Amino acid sequence: MKDIEIVLKSIKNKEFLPIYFLHGEEPYYIDVATKHFENDVLEEDEKAFNQTVVYGKDTNYGEILSLARQYPMMGDKQLIIVKEAQDLKLEESESDAFLAYLNAPVESTILVFAHKHKKLDSRKKVSKELTTKKFLFLSDKIKDSQLATWIQSEIEKFGYKAAPNVSFLLAEYLGSDLSRIANELNKLKLVLKEGDVLDNKIVEEHIGISKDYNIFELQKALATKNKERAFKIAYYMGKNKKSNPIQMSIGALYKFFSDLVMYHTLIGQSPSVIAKEIGVNPYAIQNFAEAARFYPLKLATRIISVIREMDLKSKGLGVRQMEDDEIYVEMTFKILNIDQIKIN
């Protein structure tokens, strides 16, 4: 995120580099930076002549460099944005040409690459040269332990206040898709004004997360072996699959019980050390301590197998594809009775 902040500051201050190569596994920050380039670099009357957007799958480095060597019309700068740059193929001959351009870029051109979902190969000469010239900017995945804090900061950026645990609820339900989280918070502009409090009721009504029936609550019920509540939540979520996509729920439970397995291997360490090793907020360690009482290491490991089985069933891979409501109930039953069931 630090790298992207440098890029945004550069745009805001109108202090431009000739090349920005944005790359990394987190597409959200790359999209944010790209949008700012599109909207905030050139004046509206300059964009028609001096702003060009191309896509990686439809072009190549030769064509991009040819555009970059042109000069702006009726202005001081031209902006070239290469979206989906991860689709570009860098041939050896093009690599040499790109390296030459990196060492002598056209100062009147701002060349932006949006290389999403993966990092540029650090072993390549081009990557090393981009790093040396300080043209390379990383957008890394946010850690799960930092997600609730990030959501809290985004809520504050929108000018809202947050009720206790709302950021944790959103983190559990929406996962680490930052674009989705930002979109959901942006929708609240229609119902909230600056200074209003974002509470569970608003989340339930406008984001579709029930404060009582969501993956966060199901996870807690399973972790404490509250059978009646777990089945009640599972049934509700299965009947409201649009608000509770099965793949997201399977992913969340897989992560929780995988972290529980790791917790077992770290018992004896301090809570802060365990939290750091697992990659969660220290507040969550008590949840694992409680779950560990009901699910020793052997059972927690077996639960991972059950969740994998449910994932296959949800996709119809090698088994009969099941409806979401069936999967929710069967998965809940098997987890709660993991000490009695037979693992295939």
From TrEMBL:
List each copy of the DNA polymerase III delta N-terminal domain by range. 20-133
**This protein's GO CC annotations:** DNA polymerase III complex
InterPro entries named among the record's database cross-references: DNA_pol3_clamp-load_cplx_C (IPR008921), DNA_pol3_delta-like_C (IPR048466), DNA_pol3_delta_N (IPR010372), DNA_polIII_delta (IPR005790), P-loop_NTPase (IPR027417)
In short, the EC number is: 2.7.7.7
Q: Which reactions fall under this protein's catalytic activity? A: DNA(n) + a 2'-deoxyribonucleoside 5'-triphosphate = DNA(n+1) + diphosphate
**Source species, domain of life:** Bacteria
Q: Which GO terms describe its molecular function?
A: DNA binding; DNA-directed DNA polymerase activity
Give any single GO term for biological process. DNA-templated DNA replication
Tell me which residues make up the DNA polymerase III delta subunit-like C-terminal domain: 214-316
Q: What NCBIfam families does the record point to?
A: holA
- State the family it belongs to: Belongs to the DNA polymerase HolA subunit family.
Q: What name has this protein been given in UniProt?
A: DNA polymerase III subunit delta
